[in-house]
Each structure stands twice: as structure tokens, then as C-alpha cells.
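Recall the central idea of this unit: under ordinary conditions, the amino acid sequence of a chain determines the structure it adopts. In this exercise we apply that idea directly, starting from the sequence alone.
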Amino acid sequence: MKRKDFLKINSFWILPFFITKKDVERILEEIKKEVCEDLEIDLSFDDDLSIEELNKKFLNLKSPTNVLSFPEEKGSGSIMISLETVFRESFLYNQPLEEHLIRILIHGILHILNIDHSPYMFELTEKLVEKSKTILYRSY
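Accordingly, the structure predicted from this sequence is:
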């Protein structure tokens, strides 16, 4: 990827969430400032069936999940998000769809950066979600 093309989105059926590709790019720019200037991700939005197949293949888990992260080189990797799962979880957790999607994206990015589940990860996630909400809601 070229330096300015730090984000490659393979599929973008995200319109029901009222988030544009430009919104995601602006949010990722802010995240890069906070955690990794050299961040490069290949991002795809998929359905539960696709995610479930990969979850079984790589983690031997027979169910869909909200996000799968595949770190490659330092600060780069692939992230796959199941929009079906994000949709269900947003209602389950009583969160706006856009906010939950951003939280899941950040979670995936932190895994790309080899940050595992910990109080630090959760604190950093919430900090980045708050910054992202400012960017997202400023768009409207």
C-alpha cells in the first residue's frame, strides 16, 4: 500500500450504519496519531457466515464473532468485521450502531498492534471511542 493509502476497504456494505468511508478514514487518522503512525490495515465488512468459516478455520471456534484480526508486519494487518454481529450486539448492549462499530474496529486495530485483552486495552479503547465519536458526530 502507498503511504497515503493506509486503509484498504474490500467491501463496504456499511450504509445502514450511516458511516461513510470518509468517516472511517478520519477516525483511523486520529487513531494513528494515538497508537501507531505507521498503521496500515486491510478492512473488510462481512456477514456472519463468512466470519464463522474463518473463525472455525483459524481459531477452531464454530460460531460467528464480531471481529477477526490478522496481524502481519508491525502495525499492519487485516481486519474482518461481521456487520450482522455488530448489529445484534449494538441492540444487546444498548449502544448506537455507529458507536459499537467504531468500538469493534478499534478493538481489531489494537489486536493488529499486538495489544491483548487487558485493563490497558479497554481503557485505550474507550479513549479512542470518545475521540472517534467527536469526529463521527461532527460529520452530521
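The longest strand covers residues 40-46.
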